[in-house]
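Propose amino acids for all 407 sites.
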């Protein structure tokens, strides 16, 4: 089949890899002019996620770029430690920078799919024989299937699904992250600083210790802004963190120069049914929760199951889409319900901050929390798809001076 995938971050390249290997003709369209680089570290924990990565053939390469996990040290204004979350808390079994994950998935799927950067779907029209797609560039094509893997604010979801079937719930917080020069000399733990309703944090970039990544979280009602306008998003961050102490002014100084900014509301997407006709949603587009709900792992596993079910159903996409959803929905909903990342990272009150720190300073409670995170990741029942075809060895790529080079 001719399949169009919208979005080239995590879910998109993952499903492109599987569908391409199964012999489909896959195109991935990405709105950004090139693979997006930004983002914090993301983690995979539990056997299910690592098994899928192994089957994709990317596990070893990801291990070679893993960060090794990073402990989070919550500090006061003077830098004194208030509470520390160990490496296992955030890092899981495998922690990699989101940009590295995306790059590795892209490199491994490039032989299987055609990538179109700097374009986006403008309209979709489904009929008996396929889906007519018009792109913003003016190009028009017909596809058998369209996969929306274009994140929390999916254009595929907006164009193909009636508004009443979609609920986007703002959970009261925003998150932003950008790269800065590591002028603070952060080496080990990521440093986290709270005031009520806000978190500022900075951690060293393990690949290049001269650089550091920030992650800022703040409580706010829903804001109106242009998602394509970085300057506007930077102004929002500056406004919310103006006048704060610790190293906040220094970290904000790096903001104007940042070319990649990750900025989003912490929200939850709920779609009554993940597919409609020939269009199906994958990853954050269908069941996102911004962060704290295993979104990255679920996107990778979702891609495996979606493509596997299509292969198992012999191309009967209706059956495949239903089975994909049946297999995944319960675990996804459980992970989404458990996500309170905003409140956890930036409690709204001084009391909330003190209470969180006190509780997690007690080893028993810390252990319980780690156990909960682990259990969550085992919820997906990973099917075996015996009819996935065997695939030959694919060329390896490396990045040399910013260019992808075939080895
Ligand atoms: C730059 C960036 C940084 C991130 N940083 C973090 C982080 O620090 N911590 C965290 O927990 N999660 C982060 N995420 C989100 C995380 O990657 C996802 O929650 C998770 O991996 C699920 O991936 P996904 O592929 O479903 O969605 P996403 O990773 O959100 O990817 C969606 C992709 O679709 C593209 N896209 C959007 N609109 C269109 C369109 N109209 N047409 C074509 N393509 C479109 C986007 O540019 C993006 O490449 C980040 C995402 C991005 C894009």
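Proposal:
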């Amino acid at each position: 089949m001719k399949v169009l995938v919208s979005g080239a971050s995590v879910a998109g390249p993952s499903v492109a890899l599987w569908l391409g290997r199964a012999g489909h003709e896959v195109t991935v369209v990405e709105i950004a002019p090139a693979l997006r680089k930004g983002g914090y570290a993301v983690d995979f924990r539990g056997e299910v996620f690592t098994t899928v990565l192994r089957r994709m053939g990317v596990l070893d390469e990801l291990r070679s770029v893993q960060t090794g996990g990073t402990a989070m040290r919550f500090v006061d204004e003077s830098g004194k430690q208030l509470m520390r979350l160990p490496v296992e808390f955030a890092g899981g079994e495998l922690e990699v920078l989101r940009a590295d994950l995306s790059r590795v998935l892209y490199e491994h799927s490039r032989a299987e799919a055609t990538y179109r950067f700097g374009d986006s779907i403008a309209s979709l029209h489904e009929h008996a024989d396929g889906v007519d797609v018009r792109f913003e560039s003016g190009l028009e094509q017909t596809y058998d299937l369209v996969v929306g893997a274009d994140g929390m604010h999916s254009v595929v979801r907006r164009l193909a699904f009636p508004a009443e079937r979609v609920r986007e719930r703002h959970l009261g917080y925003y998150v932003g992250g950008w790269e800065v020069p590591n002028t603070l000399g952060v080496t080990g733990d990521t440093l986290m600083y709270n005031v009520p309703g806000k978190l500022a944090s900075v951690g060293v970039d393990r690949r290049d210790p001269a650089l550091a990544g920030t992650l800022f979280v703040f409580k706010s009602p829903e804001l109106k802004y242009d998602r394509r306008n970085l300057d506007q998003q930077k102004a929002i961050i500056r406004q919310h963190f103006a006048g704060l102490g610790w190293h906040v002014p220094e970290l904000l100084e790096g903001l104007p120069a940042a070319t990649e900014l990750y900025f989003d509301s912490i929200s939850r997407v709920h779609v009554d049914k993940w597919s409609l006709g020939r269009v199906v949603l994958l990853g954050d587009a269908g069941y996102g929760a911004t962060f704290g709900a295993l979104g990255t792992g679920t996107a990778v596993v979702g891609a495996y199951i979606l493509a596997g079910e299509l292969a198992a159903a012999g191309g009967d996409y209706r059956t495949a889409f239903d089975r994909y959803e049946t297999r995944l929905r319960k675990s996804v909903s459980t992970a989404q319900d458990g996500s309170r990342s905003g409140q956890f990272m930036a409690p709204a009150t001084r009391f909330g901050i003190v209470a969180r720190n006190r509780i997690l300073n007690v080893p028993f409670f810390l252990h319980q929390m780690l156990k909960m995170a682990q259990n969550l990741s085992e919820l997906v029942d990973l099917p075996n798809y015996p009819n996935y075809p065997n695939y030959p060895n694919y060329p390896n790529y490396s990045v040399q001076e910013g260019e992808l080079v075939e080895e």
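Residues 390-400, 402-407 have pLDDT under 50 and may be disordered. Residues 6-12, 29-32, 36, 38-40, 42, 98, 120, 149-151, 155, 177, 262, 283-285, 288, 291, 295-296, 299 surround flavin-adenine dinucleotide (CB under 6 Å).
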